[in-house]
Amino acid sequence: FPCEVIRNFSIVAHIDHGKSTLADRLVGLTGTIPKKAFGANQQVLDKLKVERERGITESGLTLCSMIYHSHQKYLLNLIDTPGHVDFSWEVSRSLAACQGALLLVDATQGVQAQSISVFHIARERGLKIIPVLNKIDMPVADPSRITAQLQSMFGIDPAEVLQISAKTGRGVETVLQAIIERIPPPSGSVHEPLKALLFDSQYDRYRGVISLVNVMNGVMRKGDRIASCHTGKKYEVTEVGIMHPEEVPVMHLQPGQVGYIACNMKESTEAHVGDTLHQANVPVDPMPGFQPTKAMVYAGVFPVDTNDFIKLEESIRRLTLTDRSVTIQRESSTALGQGCRLGFLGTLHMDVFRQRLEDEYDANIIITAPTVPYKVIYRDQTVIVSNPTDFPDEWGTASHVREVQEPMVKASILVPEEYLGDMMDLCFSRRADDLDHHYLDSGTSTSARVMLTCTLPLSEIVTDFFDQLKSRSSGYASFDYEDAGYKASDLVKVWMIASIKLFMTFLLNGKPVDALALVIHRSVEQKIGRTWVKKLHKVIPRQLFEVPIQAAVGRRIVARETLSAMRADVTAGLYGGHYERKLKHLENQKESKRRMKKIGNVDLPQNAFFDILSTT
Ligand code: GTP
């Protein structure tokens, strides 16, 4: 396949707008999968189980090559793009190997907040955009209104908009035609030295690392000696192939082609997404890589059984090969033992990762409530704190900490106008600033849609913001956010303390209950303190003595509950003489003690921690 007949494209779409259905249609139409093998629910793009379950397409090797016979043979490479806001880095990664993109919009719903940001990334990269309206078979579809929307939002020419039904197959042929007519072929030369972009990778238990590459120049052949610009390491290419839609080995990959290679890379860390590969003895200039990802949400991941730590850590490392955007650090906690602190791009990303860990690696884990990275500005340095435990107890004029800052985001919410008031209330309750809104269309048959923008502290959206947004708008609101830097904020750390004695220890030796620290805004310290103290009161078993449970900011107690004492001595209820029975009771007590975690002078069953710290 010479360059002229190759088209590399991706589909940009909001979740549920029909990307997988359209991909299946394209695959079916091009005869990529024999018709009889093509089950009703078999979606080629959604390979991973979790993607199917959650209905989202994310990470994994998602490339599909098709051969299309028009007046001549074309090689169409569909490179999958995740549609969600958390994955904008993966979006740019997959778009780097494309020359065009289908902007797929549900004709019953219109453009959603998340497709807007992906669209802009595609346009910035100079990709040819083909607007496609899907689901025109549905009676409520309103193609003319949505076309007008595309025109006003993106300046798209209505004449270019295709109308299809991926479900019935209507118009899908025109999509294939548009792909070959409108999207430019990749450029590249067989006479130049080999230069290939590594844009995705996955770990295979038997073959080691499998990488997706886009050959820019030269030819990639089986048996080639290649090297990485990033690490300088050399490899031998043991397999070259295309995804058609499963792996199909081929003799070589030519300029403009995308495909997979195996090259005895053993370690997941060796495959750097954005790396340039070249012939081992013919160095080339590396292509500009990708912007390093920035973790926005952190959470501690611990094995339920502390003996499983090594296994858990290995599973996490394996998983990060298909998902490079996760950052890992070891973390240890008095309450939960040894674990890892992971950084994610967002909360959906965190959920997907957790589920993959559980599904694919059978991990039994506890994941702590998500936190965001704070900036602590000392007199002479600035430190990023991603674990509340490390947040300074006090700061301000009397301390060596000058200021603390929290990450902010610029949020965009797209919603029918009748929900505007509810959305504004929600934003204000989350410390929103610079609230603004404008109408996107006038709304004739259905209600007009409004774009609401504001800045919000990231910490306010990492917990239940998205759920609230959906429930308060009956599911109609769509939401997107982008990084808006850091801003000074009046934040405090709240410690949860059970028992006075511990409190003293904490003050004297600086030994806190690590897992139970939170960083929150000062204005809600009492409210949140009270909620947590109540939670603890519920889960801490009664002790032989009275236990005050308190939430403290520095030395100030902001909330308190008292756990009354339990009746002393487990054997007290047994009348004399039954020596063996008494012994058994004492033995039982000893055993259950062993499974307890001692926090200060209070025994806490590990389960209590799971109950209060678990995010689910
Ligand atoms: P994610 O994988 O979650 O991003 O979703 P997707 O964009 O891939 O959507 P998918 O293809 O899974 O389609 C979502 C739903 O819309 C499914 O129930 C499809 O059957 C339905 N659907 C897709 N295309 C059409 C269409 O043209 N007409 C109608 N009526 N339904 C469609």
TrEMBL record:
The chain's coiled-coil residues are: none
Q: What does this protein do?
A: Promotes mitochondrial protein synthesis. May act as a fidelity factor of the translation reaction, by catalyzing a one-codon backward translocation of tRNAs on improperly translocated ribosomes. Binds to mitochondrial ribosomes in a GTP-dependent manner.
- Fetch the NCBIfam families from UniProt: lepA, small_GTP
So what does this thing catalyse? Answer: GTP + H2O = GDP + phosphate + H(+)
Give start and end of each Tr-type G domain.
4-187
Q: Which organism is it from?
A: Pisolithus tinctorius Marx 270
UniProt keyword terms in alphabetical order = GTP-binding, Hydrolase, Membrane, Mitochondrion, Mitochondrion inner membrane, Nucleotide-binding, Protein biosynthesis
- Protein name as catalogued: Tr-type G domain-containing protein
Question: Which terms does the UniProt entry file under GO BP?
Answer: positive regulation of translation; translation
Q: Care to name a GO molecular-function term for this sequence? A: mitochondrial ribosome binding
InterPro entries (alphabetical): EF-4 (IPR006297), EFG_III/V (IPR035647), EFG_V-like (IPR000640), EFTu-like_2 (IPR004161), LepA_C_sf (IPR038363), LepA_CTD (IPR013842), LepA_IV (IPR035654), P-loop_NTPase (IPR027417)
